[in-house]
Design a protein that fits this description.
Blueprint lengths: L2 E2 L2 E4 L2 E5 L4 E5 L3 E6 L2 E7 L3 E7 L2 E2 L4 H16 L10 E7 L2 E7 L7 E2 H16 L10 H15 L5
Parallel strand pairs: 8-11
Antiparallel strand pairs: 1-2, 2-3, 3-4, 4-5, 5-6, 7-9, 9-10
Length: 159
C-alpha cells in the first residue's frame, strides 16, 4: 500500500484518513464513509459537491517520523504504551448543498505536511469536477504517486 499524507492506496479504492478508524473510501462509483471496516454511508459521486479535510498541518516535511521517534522514546522511558493516539480531525462533505461533517482519523500524531493536504484537496476537487477521471480510483497507487509528485513540485523554488 502506498501512502502520502492523508491519502492511502487500498485495494480498489483511495482511502482518505486512517483506514483502521474513521476515513473515506473513494471508489469510481461512490464516496464511502467508513469507521474501520463498517460503512457509515455511501454517497454517489453525482451528489457530492465538495470534500474538505480539517486536520492539523505542519511546515516540517517528515512529521510522522518525528512523532514516531518522540513517542517511541517516551514509551521506552515509561516502559509502557503511553496511549498517545492521534486525535481525529474532521471532514466535511457537501452533498446536494448540505454540508455533512464527520470525524477523520489520522495516521500519526502531529500534523500532516501542509503540501500533502493541499494536494489532497486539489485531487478531491478534480475528482468532484471531472467524472471521467474517477475511473482512476480503481488504481489508487497511481493517484497517490501523482499527488506526491504535485506536492513536491509545489515546494520547489521557481526556476
Amino acid at each position: 500500500m502506498r501512502r502520502y499524507g492523508p491519502l492511502l492506496a487500498v485495494p480498489g479504492a483511495l482511502a482518505v484518513g486512517d483506514p483502521g478508524r474513521h476515513h473515506l473510501r473513494l471508489t469510481p462509483d461512490a464516496v464511502v464513509v467508513r469507521e474501520g471496516i463498517e460503512n457509515r454511508g455511501i454517497i454517489p459521486w453525482d451528489r457530492v459537491e465538495r470534500i474538505r479535510l480539517d486536520v492539523p498541518t505542519t511546515r516540517f516535511r517528515l512529521p510522522g517520523l518525528v512523532g514516531t521517534i518522540v513517542l517511541g522514546a517516551a514509551s521506552a522511558l515509561a516502559q509502557t504504551d503511553i496511549g498517545a493516539d492521534p486525535e481525529d480531525g474532521t471532514l466535511t462533505i457537501t452533498v446536494d448543498g448540505d454540508p455533512q461533517t464527520s470525524p477523520l482519523s489520522r495516521h500519526h500524531v502531529g500534523g500532516y505536511w501542509t503540501p500533502t493536504v493541499d494536494g489532497a484537496h486539489r485531487l478531491l476537487d478534480h475528482l468532484v469536477a471531472s467524472p471521467e477521471q474517477r475511473v482512476l480510483l480503481a488504481h489508487p497507487e497511481s493517484l497517490v504517486s501523482v499527488s506526491a509528485t504535485l506536492a513536491r513540485r509545489a515546494t520547489l523554488p521557481d526556476a
